[in-house]
Amino acid sequence: MRTRLITTGAAVCAAATMLAPTPAEAASAVQIYRVYYDSPGKDNRSNASLNGEWVQLVNKSRTARQLKGYRLRDKTGYTYTFGSFVLKAGKTVTVHTGKGRNTAAHRYWGRRAYVWNNTGDTAYLRYPNGKAADSCSWGSKGDWKRC
């Protein structure tokens, strides 16, 4: 009986170990929060229209995160790479497609064409080492997606 209890206990510990997420599988502190992929009004490539298309990231941790080298990209491969930028704990940053003046809450890609497809796409967030931090996909319905 004692051997059986030890064996059963070992099996429970082994099962618990297999179910516990490893650090690589744990959720990223910085995540994609919302994507506004279909800017309001006509898609006329004006800077205002381009900036109506954006991705918002959130820092879900209790500490500030340096985003230098993080990359935000779409399925096609259009990529925005963060320069030296600190996202404070619990705060968001919105990455707009068009041009503008970077602030603590808004970053600008500087593109002259749209990135996010209205008919469906995926936003990928990658760490500086290239590993996946987060992603968010959508279909053809609606204008935006909460991830």
From TrEMBL:
Alphabetized, the UniProt keywords read: Signal
What are the boundaries of the signal sequence? 1-26
**Membrane-traversing stretches:** none
Domain of life of the organism encoding this protein: Bacteria
Stored SUPFAM superfamilies: Lamin A/C globular tail domain
**Cytoplasm as a keyword?**
no
Question: What InterPro entries does the record tag this protein with?
Answer: Lamin_tail_dom, Lamin_tail_dom_sf
Q: Does the keyword Disulfide bond apply?
A: no
Please list the residue ranges annotated as the LTD domain. 21-140
Q: Under what name is this protein listed?
A: Lamin tail domain-containing protein
Organism this protein belongs to: Actinomadura rudentiformis
Q: Mind giving the lineage of the organism this protein is from?
A: Bacteria, Bacillati, Actinomycetota, Actinomycetes, Streptosporangiales
